[in-house]
Amino acid sequence: MIQEVNHQQLTERIFKRERTVIFFYTPLCGTCKLANQMLDVALAVFPVPEKLDVISCNINQMPAAAKQWRVQSVPCLAFLDDGKMVKKLYSFRSVDYIYQEIKKFYK
After folding, report:
1. Mean pLDDT of 11-38
2. Is the pTM of this model over 0.70?
3. d(CA 105, CA 50)
4. Is residue 54 one of the residues assigned to a domain?
């Protein structure tokens, strides 16, 4: 459901869609794996509209993006509107919390 992208694809995609949600992670982070599972469940419950793009990025391969958007730690769920960062979540409290945050962002 969540598509992994590289730096070039990230740059291209954030300007193709009005709104983008980016899941920043590192492969060896156990908390990131749990957060990814929670995000998968939240997205399965919430039908993702065509105008909302949900992607994931290995932050180890994208230090420039992490610096540009000031990602302080992982896991991080970043919400972009027209290519501009509007919100970052570092705490994945529950599936319902993630679902509600995505729902609020889309409205």
Report:
1. 91
2. yes
3. 14
4. yes
Helix (H) or strand (E) holding 103: helix 95-106
Q: How many domains does the chain have?
A: 1
- Give me the percent of the chain exceeding a pLDDT of 70: 95
Q: Which domain, by its residues, includes 62?
A: 3-102
DSSP category for residue 48: P
Strand bridging mode 76-81 / 19-25: antiparallel
Query: Does 107 fall in a domain?
Result: no
In a domain, 33, yes or no: yes
Does residue 50 carry a pLDDT above 70? no
- 57: helix, coil or strand? strand
Question: How far lies 35's CA from each of 70, 76, 89, 91, in Å?
Answer: 20, 9, 11, 9
